[in-house]
Amino acid sequence: MIELLLPARCTGCNACVTACPRDVFDPVPDGPPRIARQADCQTCFLCELYCQEDALYVHPYADHARPQDAGAIEASGLLGAYRRDSGWDEWAEDETLRNQHWRMEDVFRRARGA
């Protein structure tokens, strides 16, 4: 479930607003989008994939909200891990990451602290 949008990283491009199939975000004029309907998040990670600034954190569990400490998430190295490990955007030509979606269980384990 979407847990964090880090305003300091967000450029206000609204890619997450456009990518979200459940309309979880509301655009905000001259600012970062707002997580408006968190409970509607289906944990598809599309917002994370399309956020080139790695300003979003989606917790891998979808059953209920799990508030996160923004500082701890930034320090954890999880921001951008889904995009990288999926071989998305700037990593698309990296032979070691191409088509690595099967590795996402490793990302989920790190998020759970396992």
UniProtKB/TrEMBL annotation:
Residues 1-30, 31-61 form the 4Fe-4S ferredoxin-type domain. The keyword Iron applies. Keywords: 4Fe-4S, Iron, Iron-sulfur, Metal-binding. GO terms for molecular function: 4 iron, 4 sulfur cluster binding; metal ion binding. InterPro entries: 4Fe4S_Fe-S-bd (IPR017896), 4Fe4S_Fe_S_CS (IPR017900), Fe-S_Ferredoxin (IPR050572). Pfam families: Fer4_9. PANTHER family: ADENYLYLSULFATE REDUCTASE, BETA SUBUNIT (PTHR43687), FERREDOXIN III (PTHR43687:SF1). This is Ferredoxin family protein. It comes from Gluconacetobacter takamatsuzukensis.
